[in-house]
Design brief:
about 0% helix, homopentamer, five-stranded mixed barrel
Amino acid sequence: MFVGKVVGSIVSTRKNEKLIGSKFMIVESVMDTSKERLVAVDNVGAGIGEIVLVATGSAARLCGKASDAPIDAAIVGIVDDGVGLSGM
Amino acid sequence: MFVGKVVGSIVSTRKNEKLIGSKFMIVESVMDTSKERLVAVDNVGAGIGEIVLVATGSAARLCGKASDAPIDAAIVGIVDDGVGLSGM
Amino acid sequence: MFVGKVVGSIVSTRKNEKLIGSKFMIVESVMDTSKERLVAVDNVGAGIGEIVLVATGSAARLCGKASDAPIDAAIVGIVDDGVGLSGM
Amino acid sequence: MFVGKVVGSIVSTRKNEKLIGSKFMIVESVMDTSKERLVAVDNVGAGIGEIVLVATGSAARLCGKASDAPIDAAIVGIVDDGVGLSGM
Amino acid sequence: MFVGKVVGSIVSTRKNEKLIGSKFMIVESVMDTSKERLVAVDNVGAGIGEIVLVATGSAARLCGKASDAPIDAAIVGIVDDGVGLSGM
C-alpha cells in the first residue's frame, strides 16, 4: 500500500457498467518526493485534501461490494497520523 | 487506474486466438509528465484523441466478454472531466 | 520480495473493516540506493529500525488470517543476516 | 500490454519442469525511449527482429497449454502495423 | 521474467511459517544497466555467481511445493546461454 493525498477526481459517463456508482479520486503519493499519481476508487468517503491509504492490484477488489469490477486501485483508509512520510 | 490519451493503435494479424476481435489502442498517461505508454484493449468504443480511464493487471480481464484472454490492460471508461491532471 | 528497514508506521481509524487490527508499517528498501518506500502489514512483530523481508502483490494476502483483506504488501520475515545488500 | 522488438533469446537446461519446451525470447520495448527489456515466452512463433505484442502478469498464463507454468510474460501477437510508437 | 545474477542471500529466522525451508537469494538484473535487485526463492539449486531466470508475481508460487507461501519472486531456471543481454 502507499499513503497519498487526494488531489482531484474524475468524471466518466460512458464506462464499464460494473463501475457505475464508483467515485474515482486522483491520489498523489506522499511516500517520497516522486509524487506519483493514480486513480483510485474511494471506499471510505475520502475528500479532496485528505491523506489516505491506497491498495493496488487485485487487493483493490477486496474492499467494495463489486469484487468483479475492473479496478486496480482503491482507497482503503483515511490516515490520521504517521511517522516516516515526507509529506506529513 | 490511470487517465491517458488514446494516441494510436496497433494491428496484429497473427495472434493468440482469444484476442481475435480485440481493438488494441496505445494510451499515453496524462497523470504526470512521464507520458508513459501502453497498449490497452478497448471496451468502450474509444477513439484516437479521447481521454480515457485504463485499468491494468487482472482487472483488465473483468470488463469484456472474454475473461480468459491474455490481456493486462483495458480502457474501462471515457473521461468527461477531471481535476488534478496535468494533461487536462 | 525485497529487504527493507522499518522506518515508520501509520494510524488509520476510518478504514475498511477487514483491516481492523492490522499494523501498518512504513518500510524503506535497502536493496539499492533508490530507498523506495511502501506501507506493509506486519505479520511477524517487526519494530521500527528492524530489517525485514517484504512480499508484495497477492502474496501479501497469504500470510495472515484475513486472506481477503485489501492489502498488497506484508512483512513476512525479520532478516538476521545478508550478503549483497547496500544497506546492511 | 506493450509492443516490443525481439532482440534475443536464452537457453536454460536446468529449469522448472513446467517450463520444458518453452521458448524464451528477450523483448525490448518500443513504446518509448526507455528500451526496457524482459524475457517472454513465445506462443506465436516470433523470430528475432520481429515486432510483437507482449502481455505480462497472470495474463501470460492464459495463452499457452500450460496455464500453471511459472511464467509472467508472453508474446501474444505479431504486430503488423501501428500508429503512435517511437520504434515503428 | 528477467535474467539476473545471484549476488547474495539472506537469512531470516523469525518468519512466516510457510517460508520455513525456503532459500532466499538476492538476484541482480542483467537485462539492462539499471542492475535492479530483488529477493527470489530458489527452486533449482542456484548458487552465488550463477545467471538465472526469475519469475515474479503470482507466477512465483507455481514452481514449488508450497503454492500458498507468501512469495512474489522465484528462480525458475539456470541460464546456460543467451543473446541480447548486457551482462552476458
